[in-house]
Amino acid sequence: MARLGAPIVFTQLAWVAMLTTDTAMIGRLGPDALAGASLSLMIFFLTWVFCFGVIMATAALASQAFGARKPRMIRRVIRQGFWATIVLTVPAMIAFRYTPDLLGLLSQPPEILPHADAYMSTLMWCLIPSIGFAVVRNFISSLNRPTPALWVMLAGVPLNGLLDYALIFGNFGLPRLELVGAGIATSIVNWLMFLVLLAIAVFAKPFRRYAILGRFWRPDWFQFRQIFRIGLPIAAMSLLEAGFFFSAIFIVGQFGAHAIAATMIALQMPHITFMVPMGLGQAATVRVGQAVGRRDTEGAYRSGWVAVSIALVFMSVMTAIVLSLPETFASIYLDGAHPDSAAVLALAASYLIYAAFFQAADGIQAVAAGALRGLSDTTWPMVIAAFSYWGVGLTSGLALAFWGGFEAAGLWMGFVLGLTSAAFLLTRRFRRLQRRGYIPDVEEGSSKTPTPVV
After folding, report:
1. Between 227 and 444, where is the model more confident?
2. CB of 184 within 8 A of CB of 122?
3. DSSP string covering 223-290, please?
4. Residue 198 CB partners (closer than 8 Å, separation 6+)
5. Could you give the CA distance from residue 260 to residue 407 in angstroms, rounded to a whole number?
6. Measured between alpha carbons, how far is 449 from 454 in angstroms, rounded to an integer?
7. Helix (H) or strand (E) holding 52
8. Are 363 and 277 in contact (CB under 8 A)?
9. Is the pLDDT of residue 449 over 60?
10. Is the pLDDT confidence value at 419 over 80?
């Protein structure tokens, strides 16, 4: 699990470093540019989360086929993963053209709409390669070889920073394109990373024997439907979680600028540490899926619990570190010379206490969901997510914030309760399937509709 999970985890961290570089560069263009770009990035990210969630089904299906020693099925799954990428991303890119209209309907300040439009006009072109990269990464990870994706991503981080510096500010003799240049830089880097990783998957050993681009135009409607049958609940679950946090951030704004600034600062640390269980969750999907393909019931559930245990240990250590140094972490993102810094710092440090408490639960729920994906069990986790994030988390957060008088801190308490509920119910679901000895069938194609897990 560690050999498979570590490269995936570092790939996720490299992706965060790329986003951080973009935000830092754009921030130098001024508050209006940063605000407009942030809104476009939020719309783009929610779309990306949905597309990525659907595509995550290819990791489970390819891993099951690898465990069952069915190389042709792996090729068919990945081929249909590329088909699904096109079906998902092309309509989304068309919709991105109406970003200013959408933001206007949401009553966003008119002065930032041109900035949002400028950034989205070029950023949208990185949606196809970024999702295509995920398909190829799922393929090589299902073969227990995720390292090439890590090296490609690590090469992309400094290249992205260099192109941002050149195209945003007009350095190295290039024109100053500002937000348009930021989107161009991100799109160029994502296309290069996708094409390089695809070339490795097509031409390098041991990947080339699977010929993932062979008979590319030949449909396999059974695998295509399987990707959406398994992937749509994953996408819905991801949107429910992202929407849970985004909605809370908008609500926090009602308690003043200090509260929302402190919230954004306090969320940075759990966002970074979450990349570890997120990567472990993807590794759990692969390991559980491979055991499913081998019909190894004991191995499938052992892999899931090992991943959960690693996440629990890591996030518990991070909880202890954050609890001991909340002010230190908060001050990283704050300019101490600003007159309002002391008030925001105090709030951010208090919110980090809540963030520390939900880290362990956040890690457990992410990995448990990944293990369940390896069993092709995604519908019930989606239901659990809806109940936990919105029924428990947001409802209790609103009650504590407004009726309990805790204001923004009440919403942070809602984060703790919602994520704890998700962690408990998802691990309970995994344990229930283990007691039943449940292992799904690895189907290459059939006219029958698969029986859903209940």
Report:
1. 227
2. yes
3. HHHHHHHHHHHHHHHHHHHHHHHHHHHHHHGGG-HHHHHHHHHHHHHHHHHTHHHHHHHHHHHHHHHH
4. 132, 136
5. 11
6. 15
7. helix 31-55
8. yes
9. no
10. yes
CA atoms within 13 A on the CB side of 71: 8
Token pair, residue 242, equals 């992202």
pLDDT score recorded for residue 82? 97
Q: Which residues of 388-407 are buried (b: 16+ CB within 10 A; e: fewer)?
A: bbbebbbebbbebbeeeebe
Cα 350 to Cα 93: distance, rounded to the nearest angstrom:
40
Q: How many CB atoms lie within 10 A of CB 323?
A: 14
Separation of alpha carbons 213 and 79, rounded Å: 7
How is residue 114 written in tokens?
A: 């041109």
The size of the chain, in residues, is 454
Q: Residue holding tokens 């069993």?
A: 375
Mean pLDDT for the stretch of residues 221-243:
93
Q: Name which of 159, 112, 400 is nearest 167 in CA terms.
A: 159
What are the Cα distances from residue 7, in Å, to 49, 129, 130, 151, 400? Answer: 21, 20, 18, 9, 40
Longest dimension (CA), the chain: 68
Please indicate, yes or no, whether the overall pTM of this predicted structure exceeds 0.85.
Answer: yes
The answer to whether residue 366 scores a pLDDT higher than 90 is yes
CA 78, CA 348: separation in Å to the nearest integer? Answer: 44
| Residue 20: band (very low, low, confident or very high) from pLDDT cuts 50, 70, 90 | confident
What b/e sequence results for 164-181 when a residue is b if at least 16 CB atoms lie within 10 Å of its CB, and e otherwise? bbbbbbeeeeeeebbbbb
Other CB atoms within 10 Å distance of the CB of residue 231: 27
Q: Are 401 and 411 spatial neighbours (Cβ–Cβ below 8 Å)?
A: yes
The pLDDT score that the predictor gives to residue 340 is 62
Instruction: Give percent helix, percent strand, percent coil of the chain, each to the nearest 5.
Output: 80, 0, 20
Q: What is the pLDDT of residue 215?
A: 87
**Closest by Cα among 124, 103, 122, 125 to 112:** 103
